[in-house]
Specification:
The chain is built from 14 helices and 26 strands. By secondary structure, the chain is of the alpha+beta class. It folds into three domains: 192 residues, 3-Layer(bba) Sandwich (FAD/NAD(P)-binding domain), CATH 3.50.50; 88 residues, Alpha-Beta Plaits, CATH 3.30.70; 88 residues, Glutaredoxin (3-Layer(aba) Sandwich). The strands form five sheets. Strands 1, 2, 8, 9, 10, 11, 20 and 21 form an eight-stranded mixed sheet that branches. An eight-stranded mixed sheet has the order 6-5-14-15-16-13-18-17. The structure holds flavin-adenine dinucleotide. Flavin-adenine dinucleotide (FAD) binds next to helix 1, strand 9 and helix 7.
């Protein structure tokens, strides 16, 4: 496709994060152009674990049913020590999310499905098109690109998004540093055809004396991803990144050394690697923003890399659309504040998991083989514990700082900064779903609400809908004093504000979104 000489948003990089962001922006009515230096999507399986929160985001762009049709559902993670089952951590968000389970889907398929959706939109897209230079000022950006035929061209864009992965050209060109380091241990990953009597609706984490191996069932017959730490380091990459392929014989030895009931028949893609734990010093520099691996790199423990990037896209898409519609530029600062904090948290969590999984010292072996299964068994004994485990694993736990004028909220379903979870009240949940990708006001106990007129006037001014929730229905998750509560639900379904004082809400909205305005696009 011919690349235009000007565009509203130029996304550099057609990985899973750049493609998701392009679709979210297109849905919000933003004109988008995507370029990628490669000639096709990746062929390797790479990131395979699709968390429930990612499915929720994908649902707003029509991707969730496509992913579900091809992916393999994962309902639990079983912990084993030297092959023996010790504890099972359910991955079950029934009552919390419309997508209560995880999904295994190869990144090659994820990208192909996202591209099939892109083809149905107005998004302009070009392979074999590399960003080589970038200048910007307060009015916009000018990107220099080298196209398929070797020609050098410029594209003017109001905003440029670096979705160009760990070695981001955009990040280098704007002089943003990546802070953090690289782990010492080397890992292997193998996609294998294998026979086993393991139940393929679960994933497995096996702790042996000095090593940890995960067995993750992939879509397809007897198809698994095996991932673990290498016991001997030979010929591994000196730097972080992906290294040599491993042989089927070596893979068999590694699995046998971990006492796992898995017989490898043949292997497909395989690699050794060393992981980074790095976060960019900022995700925004003027009109240039970073998403996904361009902003943060962490160990694959927890399968959070791609999923965290896709949540970046959901956070950024509505803010960028609103700013292009006339909201103040400072709204984009909340993107870097909110998502960088999450990236740091993810890096710290995966750091801890990484050390726990890979450290050969005796006390860490004791922790993973004895203490961890005990904690999992204890926590998952109660419904609340299982819900907590799901929220932590699935990405639903993320909570952004709430404005000071907001009430905190009492339960996880209805909490300022947190995601608006499922309530179990079908009509309400359906009404919220119908507003996906748009601002929404939720009001509890309409009859007793003193500020209803003011709220209705505010909603009418901004062109937003109000969804009502009966106070009695709201009580289980909004607390005893559920009457007259108002929530501003952002287009990414995070609760932006919660309270009763409509003037305070109005002030907060003016602060975030500016005064009511006519759309400029
Ligand atoms: C070999 C490999 C194996 C992996 N395995 C796993 C795994 O097992 N589990 C896991 O969770 N994660 C894995 N990851 C990480 C996972 O793939 C990433 O977290 C995820 O792809 C991030 O998506 P992204 O869209 O941010 O970036 P990417 O998927 O890296 O996409 C970036 C895109 O930008 C393009 N690009 C780069 N520079 C330019 C430029 N100058 N101009 C134009 N285009 C450019 C690239 O061609 C690429 O298509 C793996 C990564 C790699 C490289």
């Amino acid at each position: 496709m011919t690349i235009p000489s000007s565009t509203s948003v130029l996304i550099v990089g057609a990985g899973p994060v750049g493609l998701t962001l392009a679709l979210l922006l297109d849905r919000a009515g933003v004109e988008v152009t995507v370029v990628d230096r490669d000639s096709a999507p990746v062929e390797q399986s790479r990131a395979i674990w699709v968390h429930s929160r990612t499915l929720e985001i994908w649902d707003t762009i029509g991707m969730a049913p496509l992913a579900q049709a091809e992916g393999r559902e994962v309902t639990a993670i079983q912990m084993r020590t030297s092959g023996r089952a010790r504890a099972t951590l359910p991955y079950d968000g029934t009552g919390i999310s419309a997508f209560p389970h995880g999904l295994m889907l190869e990144q090659s398929r994820t990208q192909a499905l996202l591209l099939s959706l892109i083809a149905q939109t107005r998004i302009r897209f070009a392979w074999r098109t590399r960003l080589t230079d970038l200048t910007r000022d307060d009015a916009g950006c000018r990107a220099t690109i080298v196209t398929e035929d070797g020609a050098t061209r410029t594209v003017d864009a109001q905003y440029v998004i670096g979705a160009d992965g760990g070695s981001s050209t955009v990040r280098s060109l704007i002089g943003v540093r990546l802070e953090g380091g690289t782990y010492d241990s080397s890992f292997f990953l193998v996609d294998a055809i294998a026979t086993t009597d393991l139940d393929t609706s679960m994933s497995y984490l096996n702790f042996h004396e000095r090593s940890t191996v995960a067995v993750l069932p992939l879509p397809g017959d007897r198809h698994f991803r095996l991932i673990g730490n290498l016991l001997e380091q030979s010929g591994e990459p000196a730097e972080a990144g992906y290294g040599r392929a491993i042989t089927a014989e070596e893979a068999r030895r590694l699995i046998a050394a971990n006492a796992l009931p898995v017989t490898i028949e043949s292997i497909g893609w395989s690699s050794t690697y060393r992981s980074h734990h790095r976060v960019a010093e900022t995700f925004r520099s003027g009109r240039v923003l970073l998403v996904g691996d361009a902003g943060h790199l962490h160990s694959p423990a927890g399968g959070l890399g791609m999923n965290t990037g896709i949540a970046d896209a959901a956070n950024l898409a509505w803010k960028l659309a609103d700013v292009l519609d006339g909201a103040p530029e400072r709204l984009l600062d909340t993107y870097t504040a909110e998502r960088r904090a999450v990236a740091l948290q993810v890096v710290n969590t995966s750091d801890r998991l990484f050390v726990l999984q890979a450290d050969g010292r005796r006390r860490f072996a004791f922790m993973r083989r004895t203490v961890l299964p005990l904690i999992v068994r204890t926590v998952t004994r109660t419904r609340a514990g299982r819900g907590l485990a799901f929220r932590v694993l699935s990405g639903a736990f993320v909570r952004y700082p709430a404005p000071t004028s907001s009430e905190g909220g009492r339960t996880t379903a209805f909490r300022a900064g947190g995601l608006l979870h499922r309530t179990g009240i079908d009509a309400f949940d359906r009404a919220v779903d119908a507003h996906a990708g748009r601002h929404l006001l939720v009001r509890t106990g309409r009859g007793g609400h003193g500020g209803s007129n003011a709220l209705e006037a505010l909603a009418a001014d901004r062109g937003w809908d109000i969804v009502d929730l009966d106070a009695a229905d709201a009580r289980p998750f909004a607390g005893r004093n559920a009457e007259g509560l108002v929530a501003w639900v952002r287009p990414d379904r995070h609760v932006g504000w919660l309270g009763r004082d409509i003037r305070a809400l109005d002030g907060e909205l003016q602060n975030w979104l500016g005064a009511v305005r006519q759309p400029t696009r």
